[in-house]
Design brief:
The structure holds two protein chains of two kinds. Chain A is an alpha/beta fold. Chain A has 16 helices and 15 strands. Chain A has three domains: 108 residues, Alpha-helical ferredoxin (Fumarate Reductase Iron-sulfur Protein, Chain B, domain 2), CATH 1.10.1060.10; 169 residues, FAD/NAD(P)-binding domain (3-Layer(bba) Sandwich), CATH 3.50.50.60; 148 residues, FAD/NAD(P)-binding domain (3-Layer(bba) Sandwich). The complex binds flavin-adenine dinucleotide, flavin mononucleotide and iron/sulfur cluster (3 copies).
Chain lengths: 449, 423
């Protein structure tokens, strides 16, 4: 893979030992700790910080890795101000403990010292199939392997990791980091078969027929939502998947050539839009406009992501609804057609709804547009099972306590159930399903006795 | 790597699942507390010092004060707590209950007599209650009952006499608990051995004054306008405890199993005590600071350490560092080194420069433009004070210099110094 250009090869450094210990020193060692309740994935920060405080570094790593197979990645990528750190008691004195940074330090410390607490459980006869090697799939696979199940992960793409591999830009999260985190899985003996998509009618049922005792579906949401426009644009409009993923595949030159020195509009207000905006700036775009139909406070992106992108030089174009593109005679993008909006009453999401202001249409001349307005399950996913219950957007419906779908012995989790969500939530879902699967087969064994 | 290493250890014939014990103090004041501690993972207890009902014990109030130099927390505790203020019967019942409910856990009853006869009576009573062994407390530095505690421990003949009394009153093992408030801790330990002690515990609290009120001029704890030199404990006393254990372990004539106490809060502290010769580990202030739960990290941390190091049994660690504890005249003075700076990581605070100039060899120059120190290797004393001040972990380390290295002599006041100052 070609080396990433400098602006993309600059993942932030983590804490060193001294910084981590000093930060842990601030922890109040809370009784009944609220931070641990604030972690959706059950990584249990209060315990690993306490262990660090008492010089039990191996134990701290064990806590993280047993609870969260992607503990290092989560430490770096979790929106902690909304999760564990939001609940931290130390905020009552001053500011929350930097839990994510301590978590990342501990995992990197384990890598530096060659400590890996993960072990395969004593082998059981049941084989489990996992579809997708993103956070949900990996978490489920690891949890089951620890309990001794034989796990095979089927991954459509060339390499494992899901969004961590093919989404999150390298300047935020380097490919080496996910490589290293995946290496920790080695002792568990999980088989990851890359470039092996499941597809076609009844693909899920046929996995069961092949002898897998259970299936966990975690293919994520990789079909980008698109603007509905009349213009036929032949060149200049990207979906976020056609932009961020090639960059993660190392195709900086091919993509960069189309953006360098150009005027770019990013459409959307979420985290993915921020990643697109920053990436466009780093590729040398002349002007990067973020076009969003509501106001700053309604943008779903995290505050620090918004600030980062603004600092990099992104222009914010708020309260503007894209309605169409216009092109030159050859179908090359020339401008984006916008209409100004104003906010009215809150809608179902609790955010104030944007309403178009009649007669306020205008055009912003641009060379490239990148649409980052959401993602949904792959189109063909509806045919994978004949009878599986799906929700409106073709997300899979599961029992929230077990992750089981309407098809028996078939479980699902991560973005395919929640829609675009978080890594740590995907990790949670993988564990929930794994635990339900373990329980199911524990019962079976007892019944035989 | 998830299996726990074998932390079991034998102390005076009693097989413990791990070496971690509550020491005799408020943390071992009742069966309820001790029982919870056993369930949390502690392997044994030195039960809070039991006394007869003849002289009622009233604790001064308040009992303790925190040692907080310049606002730093949890470094030590200053206390004037006495022996148990509970009735003898209540304590004996609790000991009995503990032994019934947790027979695998070591219950060592700490006792203190205020007369020769009381030592004998208490010993017998605790044996009857089922204690596995006795700890002879001749080491509390702040007893309000005259002529007891460390006063006894500082008088060798009495140490021997009372130990003998206890020895003659029972058959179970006796551990004598030593005060560090003495010149040479091996002296009273030898007298305890002569009196029949089977093991030595050390240290009890260090007599100290850890704070004086700037407004009222009263030492803390401030007991209604009065303070006293009294027991100081916690992480700040660990160096003293380690030193005492190593001296006891190295004492050629003593050769008794040791129980290490003083400032232990983590598995690393515990390991250090084991390495200088302790067989068991006792804790008070660590629990006063953080609760009984610290034992979980002691167990997991020590267990992982043993697994990683390939140590099969705790016994292999006991006294392992003793061959490296030398008299200073054994040092090889021909080998010399200096401080090594990894300046790529320097943040430019200049602390190294300040302390080297004022407390070291004046071996640093300060580049005010770059905000970086520059070391003159010839002048470096290898005192290492700069490394204490540097805020960046591991930036300044020690390195050995070749045999040809010669340190420059410290300049003499006069002309030489004047020229240097001008340059
Ligand atoms: C650009 C971007 C940045 C993000 N940044 C963050 C962040 O900083 N912090 C955070 O918490 N969350 C972030 N997220 C969200 C987070 O990455 C997702 O919620 C999470 O990855 C979902 O995990 P998953 O396992 O469900 O799916 P994915 O990570 O999408 O993994 C699904 C895997 O399944 C494979 N697959 C798909 N179909 C098939 C098939 N038919 N057969 C076999 N395999 C298949 C895919 O190739 C993929 O490898 C980000 C998302 C994006 C898109
Ligand atoms: C409040 C308090 C009360 C104590 N009471 C006793 C006691 O009754 N008998 C005894 O032998 N030691 C007593 N000690 C001493 C401890 O057992 C222990 O030797 C000392 O605190 C050093 O260990 P540490 O640093 O872990 O606290 C007491 C210590 C404290 C702080
Ligand atoms: S809530 Fe904050 S202060 Fe309390 S244990 Fe968690 S990290 Fe520490
Ligand atoms: S996994 Fe994420 S949310 Fe959970 S404790 Fe770690 S950083 Fe916080
Ligand atoms: S003390 Fe450390 S960080 Fe500060 S100037 Fe000296 S070397 Fe640099």
């Amino acid at each position: 893979m070609p080396k990433a250009p400098a602006p993309f090869a600059s993942m932030k450094k983590g804490f060193d030992y001294g910084q981590a210990v000093a930060e842990a020193q601030r922890c109040l060692l809370c009784h009944d700790a609220p931070c641990s309740k604030g972690c959706p994935g059950g990584t249990d920060p209060a315990t690993f910080i306490r262990k660090l405080r008492f010089q039990n570094l191996t134990g701290a790593v064990r806590t993280i890795k047993q609870n969260n197979i992607l503990g290092g990645s989560c430490g770096e990528l979790c929106p902690t101000p909304q999760l564990c750190e939001k609940e931290c008691s130390a905020a009552g004195l001053d500011r929350p403990i930097q839990i994510g940074k301590i978590q990342r330090f501990l995992v990197e410390h384990a890598w530096a010292t060659g400590f890996n607490p993960l072990e395969k459980g004593s082998a059981r006869k049941e084989k489990i199939a996992v579809v997708g090697s993103g956070p949900a799939g990996l978490s489920c696979a690891a949890e089951l392997a620890k309990a001794g199940f034989g796990v095979t992960v089927f991954e459509a793409r060339a390499r494992a990791g899901g969004v961590l591999r093919y989404g999150v830009p390298s300047y935020r999260f380097s490919p080496d980091f996910i490589d290293r985190e995946l290496k920790d899985l080695a002792p568990l003996g999980v088989k990851i078969q890359c470039s092996k998509p499941i597809r076609g009618k009844g693909a899920v049922e046929s996995l069961l027929k092949k002898g897998f005792a259970a299936v966990f579906l975690a293919p994520g949401c990789w079909e980008p939502l698109r603007l509905k426009v009349k213009a036929k644009v032949r060149q200049g409009v990207f979906a976020w998947t056609d932009f961020l993923t090639p960059l993660k595949e190392g195709r900086f030159a091919a993509i960069g050539k189309q953006l360098k020195g150009r005027r770019v509009a990013i459409i959307g207000g979420g985290s993915v839009a921020m990643d697109c905006a920053e990436s466009a700036i780093k590729l040398g775009a002349k002007d990067v406009y973020l076009v969003y139909r509501r106001s700053y406070n309604e943008m779903p992106a995290e505050e620090d992501e918004k600030q980062d992108a603004l600092r990099q030089g992104m222009h914010l174009l708020l309260l503007n609804q894209p309605v169409d593109y216009s092109t030159d005679a050859k179908g090359r993008l020339k401008a984006i057609r916008l209409v100004r909006t104003e906010l009215s009453k809150p809608d179902a999401s609790g955010r104030r709804k944007p309403v178009e202001i009649p007669g306020s249409n205008w055009e912003l001349p641009i060379d490239v547009a990148i649409e980052a307005i959401g993602a949904q399950p792959a189109r063909d996913s509806i045919e994978w099972s004949r009878s599986m219950k799906l929700s409106d957007g073709n997300l899979i419906t599961v029992n929230p306590d077990t992750g089981e779908t309407s098809v028996k012995r078939v479980f699902a989790g991560g973005d395919i159930v929640r829609g675009p969500a978080l890594i740590i939530e995907a990790v949670r879902d993988g564990k929930t399903a794994a635990q339900a699967i373990m329980k199911r087969f524990a019962k079976k064994e007892n019944a035989h006795e | 790597m998830s299996k726990q290493a074998d932390l079991s250890v034998e102390f005076l014939g009693f097989k413990m699942k791990n070496p971690f014990m509550l020491s005799s103090s408020p943390v071992s004041n009742s069966a309820e507390m001790v029982g919870r501690a056993f369930d949390a993972g502690w392997g044994g207890v030195a039960y809070k010092t039991v006394v007869s009902d003849r002289i009622p014990i009233i604790h001064p109030s308040p009992r303790m004060a925190a040692y907080r130099p310049a606002g730093k927390r949890q470094l030590g505790v200053q206390n004037v707590e006495q022996t148990s203020d509970r009735g003898l019967k209540a304590n004996l019942l609790d000991i009995m209950y503990l032994k019934k409910r947790w027979p695998d856990h070591l219950v060592m009853a700490s006792i203190m007599g205020f007369s020769n006869q009381e030592w004998a009576d208490l010993a017998k009573a605790c044996v009857d209650a089922g204690a596995d062994m006795l700890e002879v407390n001749v080491s509390c530095p702040h007893m309000t009952v005259e002529g007891s505690g460390a006063k006894v421990g500082q008088c060798q003949e009495l140490v021997q006499k009372f130990t003998e009394t206890v020895r003659n009153s029972c058959k179970i093992p006796i551990v004598a608990k030593m005060t560090p408030n003495i010149t040479d801790i091996t002296v009273p330990a030898m007298y305890a051995k002569k009196g029949g002690a089977d093991g030595i515990a050390a240290i009890n609290s260090v007599a100290g004054l850890s704070g004086i009120g700037a407004d009222d001029w009263v030492p803390s704890p401030n007991v209604f306008g009065k303070g006293a030199a009294c027991g100081f404990t916690g992480p700040a006393i660990k160096p003293i405890g380690l030193r005492c254990i190593s001296e006891l372990a190295k004492c050629h004539d003593l050769q008794l199993p040791l129980s290490g106490i003083g400032g232990i809060e983590t598995w690393v502290d515990a390991l250090e005590y084991l390495l200088v010769g302790a067989t068991t580990i006792q804790v008070t202030t660590g629990i006063i600071h953080y609760g009984q739960g610290i034992v979980e990290n002691m167990i997991e941390g020590l267990s992982d350490y043993m697994t990683i190091k390939g140590v099969k049994s705790l016994k292999e660690l006991i006294g392992k560092a003793l061959p490296n504890v030398h008299a200073t005249h054994d040092f090889d003075l021909a080998r010399q080194g200096i401080a090594r700076y990894d300046l790529d990581r320097c943040v430019g605070c200049g602390q190294c420069y300040v302390v080297c100039r004022d407390a070291g060899g004046w071996a640093l120059d300060w580049d005010a433009k770059k905000r970086r120190p520059a070391l003159d290797e010839k002048k470096c004393l290898s005192c290492m004070v700069c490394s204490f001040a540097c805020p960046v972990d591991g930036l300044i380390t020690f390195k050995e210099m070749p045999k040809s290295y010669r340190r420059a002599e410290t300049v003499t006041l006069g002309k030489e110094l004047e020229t240097q100052r001008r340059s």
